[in-house]
Amino acid sequence: MKRRRPPSNVVAAALPIPAEAMQRRRLPPTMLVWSITAWFSIVLNLPALTAPLYGYEVAILKSANITAYNQAVIGFKSAMPQDTIFVEYDLKGDLSIGRTYAAKIRASNANLVLAVGSKAAMAARLEILDIPVIYSMVLHPAKYDLKAPNLVGVTTKPMIGQQLGTLRTIMPNLKRVGYLYDPGKTPPLPAEMISQARQLGITFIERQVRTTEEVPRALRELLPEIEALWLVSDSTVLTEESFSFLLRAAFDRRIPLIGFDPEFSRRGALISFWIDPADIGREAASLALALLPGMTPTTGKSFTPRQRMALNLGTAQYLGISIPPTVQTMADEVY
Fold first, then answer.
1. Minimal CA–CA distance to 85: which of 44, 56, 42?
2. Overall number of domains in the chain
3. Is 245 domain-assigned?
4. What is the mean pLDDT of residues 285-312?
5. Which end of the chain has the smaller Cβ count within 10 Å, N or C?
6. Pairwise CA distance, residues 257 & 35, whole Å
C-alpha cells in the first residue's frame, strides 16, 4: 500500500543534527559513535513515527460533470478523514480520456481510487491493477464485467417491495404497470422485482425499443394495456424531448408516470422513488476506510439505502387520485 512521503524539510526539522551537538560539547569517541548510530536509527524508523501525521491520497475518477455524480463525490468526501488529499479527474463522458487519467493515477501516489459512473469504473478496471478501486453510481455492474482482485463496488438494493406497496396504497386497484426499454442498453426488470409485484397482484408489461424514433409507436401500443407507466433510466427511451411526450400521452389516458428522480415529479410525474447519491458516496467512504489500512478487496458490498420519495399533488388532483395523508408525510419532496 502506497503512502505519501513526508517532505524532506519536515524530516530535517524533526531530527537532531549531530554536527551542532558536537559544537556544543565535545564527545568521547565512543559516545560519538553511539550518537551517530542512534541518529540513523531514528531516521530508519521515521515512517512509522510520522505516518499518522500525513493523510491518504485518494484519486476520484468521475465519468462526467453531472449533478448526481457530484453529489456522490460530496457525500464521499464528507465521510472521509479531514486530512485526506483528493485529486479529481473528469472524463467528460469519454472512456479514452478516462484510460489516460487512470494510467496517470497508476503512476501517482494515490492510495485508493473512487470511480464514479460506469465509464470511470471501466477505465479503472482496464488500467489500474495495483491500487484498490471502489466503483459507485453504476446502474448495471454485471453489464460492464467489473471484476478484478483490486476492484470492489458499492451497489444499491432498492426497496422494490416498499415502492410497490406505496403505489398500491395510492392506487388500490392498480394491476398492470408498463415500461419501455432498449435491451441494448438496459436489462429487463429483475426477477425479484417481478416476483414481488406478483405477490401484490401487479403485473409488469414491457415494450422494447431500439431507437428513440420507435418510442411513440411502442407507447401507443402500451398505454391501452396499463394503469401506470414506470420510467426506467434508459437513454433511448428518456430524453429531454421524449419525457414531455410520454407525460402528455399518459395524461391523455389518465395514466400516471412513476419516476426515479424528484425532477420527474416536479415536471408532472405522480410519484418518484430515488436514492440520494450522497448516501452512496458516504457508503463508499465507509468501504474506503476499511480498505486503506492495507486490506485487499475481494467482493462487492451491497447496502440498502434510505428510500426517498417525491409527490406531485397537482398531478394527483388532475388524475383524480387521492393520496392518503400518511403517504404525504413520508414524502421528501412535494409539488
1. 56
2. 2
3. yes
4. 74
5. N
6. 79
- Quick one: pLDDT at residue 145? 87
Q: Which strand (E) or helix (H) includes residue 153?
A: strand 151-156
The identity of residue 127, as a single letter, is: E
**Cell numbers for 330:** 413520508
**Residue 1, amino acid:** M
CATH number at residue 319: 3.40.50.2300
Pure H helices in the chain: 8-14, 18-24, 29-44, 46-50, 67-78, 95-106, 118-127, 160-170, 191-199, 215-222, 240-252, 262-266, 277-291, 313-319, 325-330
Decide if 99 is inside a domain.
no
Cell numbers for 82, please give them: 479531514
307's grid cell: 428510500
> Using CB atoms within 10 A of its CB, is residue 56 exposed (0-12), middle (13-18) or buried (19+)?
buried
| Phi then psi dihedrals of residue 301, to 5 deg | -125, 125
Whether residue 133 is contained in a domain is answered as: no
**177 lies in the same domain as 324:** yes
For the chain, what's the residue count?
Answer: 335
Q: Which amino acid is at 87?
A: V
CA angle 176, 182, 186 (to 5 degrees): 90
Which comes out higher in pLDDT, residue 139 or 100?
100
Q: Grid coordinates in use for 246?
A: 410520454
Domain range holding 37? Answer: 8-52
d(CA 72, CA 280): 6
Residue 4 DSSP label: P
Q: 170 with 323: CB under 8 angstroms?
A: yes
CA-CA distance, 157 to 67, in Å (whole number)? 21
> Measured at the alpha carbon of residue 300, what is the angle toward residues 297 and 304, in degrees to the nearest 5?
135
Instruction: For residue 119, tell me if it sits in a domain.
Output: no
Pick the residue with more confidence: 230 or 20? 230
Cell matching residue 31: 559516545
Radius of gyration of the CA atoms of the chain, in A: 28
